[in-house]
Description:
- By secondary structure, the protein is an alpha+beta fold.
- The protein is 29% helix and 33% strand.
- It contains three helices and seven strands.
- It has a seven-stranded antiparallel β-sheet with strand order 1-2-3-4-5-7-6, covered by helices on one side.
- Strand 4 and strand 5 form a beta hairpin.
- The longest helix has 22 residues, at 59-80.
Amino acid sequence: MRRVGAQAEAREGAASISSVDSGGVEIRTIEHSFDSTLDSVDAVEEMVLKEARHMGFDEDDQHKIGISVRECMVNAVVHGNRYNARKKVHVAIVRSPETLEVRVGDEGDFFDMTQLPDPLADENLLRHSGRGLLLMQAFMDEFQVRPRQPGGTEVRLVKHTAKAN
Length: 165
């Protein structure tokens, strides 16, 4: 992507960049680092839902996006950073006319999803945790977990608008 006429602005500590790619498509990116607190979960969910509303996602899709982002942020704060005040949760929200992409990265240890117990297995059905990743995969169009550099885990969530399908 080539940035043409890019504008950068700071809003509440977040870097917001609007740009136009070489095909004339407007892309808006918001990047911010958050404390490893549950208050950050609420803040990120509201930021993402604001972008989803702007894009015209219906109430049902907004609910799915909100749950996915909330689960992702809780995982980053609780399991990744373990509430460590010295560690941050790094968030990028990328909005194009047809795609909402959210990347959430923690500074903890990378985890391998294949090592997690199956939340649908009989022995795990009554556990209080383990369903967040399953919900993210079910509610979003794209879901990816990868190592974050220099350390930690990054989760990428993507939801396409109806016009993209």
